[in-house]
Amino acid sequence: MPDRPWTREEVLLAISLYCKLPYRKLRQSTPEVRELALLLNRTPSAISKRCCNYVQFDPVESKRVKGFTRAAKLDKSIWAEINSNWDSFVIESEQVEKEIRKEQPAPPAQKTVVAVIQDSSFPLGLSREQMVRARIGQRFFREAVLTAYDRRCCVTGIAHDALLIASHIKPWKDSDPKTERTNPRNGLCLSPLYDKAFDAGLMTVDDEYKIKFSSSVLSGHTEKTARNFFDRYEGKRLSLPDRFTPEQQFFEYHRNYIFIP
């Protein structure tokens, strides 16, 4: 019997899952893969293979792992569409999942420790609909960014969700709603101290992905503090993600408009 053709809605959810899981977890035994298979009435193997195929769309991850190379035309078309409008992809995939789940009983609530969402830059005066869209986008952005960085701070290597923040390189309020706000390539996974330093313009990243601190940070502390928290990382290259490598245009904006030399 021939395979059932994949629909746009199914591809959207598969790509969304790919963005939220590291490659090593895109296996048919992974709970999230099995859950999506059940939701779409497909086998875990089919979900796993479909998600692994998307590795070829990322120039960094495709070199790191040997993925599949036969993406369907529909997948290629949707991937291109996503890159031109991340916001619409995030909202549409969220709506698709809700529609599919609406006839199913809600699972029992569970307590989990989650990473901090950097949303303090939301401007005042947003409508309820705009706020809902923003929070859906931030939730996706957080998961995609933390997954890309293997849930480790790209400066220190700290690996605890409660101590990690998905930080925008180009601030959310200044970012294009379609191509930048929820684009994982506009993100860094940082622990709180370095998130605050980056957001305040006291730290930036050069065109070789090396860390640079403001002179006021390097000279404004005791020698021990400066050495432990700043000097040791000055000039160090960021630990780059497995996928969604940050685009230099975002760092350039940060250096020109946010960073205080």
Task: Report on this structure.
The chain has 261 residues and is mostly helical. Helices cover 44% and strands 6% of the residues. The chain has two domains: 94 residues, no CATH class; 142 residues, no CATH class. The strands form two sheets. Strands 1-2-3 form a three-stranded mixed sheet. It has a two-stranded antiparallel ribbon with strand order 4-5. Strand 4 and strand 5 form a beta hairpin. Helix 1 crosses helix 6 and helix 6 packs across helix 7. The protein is elongated and about 65 Å long. The N and C termini lie far apart (65 Å). About 5% of the residues have low confidence.
Poorly predicted parts: 109-120
Mean pLDDT: 88
| Shape field | elongated
Number of strand segments: 5
CA-atom Rg in angstroms: 20 Å
The helical percent reads 40-55%
* Total separate domains: 2
Q: What's the N-to-C terminus distance?
A: 65 Å
Spatial order of strands in the largest sheet: 1-2-3
| Structure classification | mainly alpha
Number of helices: 11
**Elements, N to C (H/E):** HHHHHHEHEEHEEHHH
> Which sheet architecture does the biggest sheet show?
3 strands, mixed
Residue fraction in strands: 5-15%
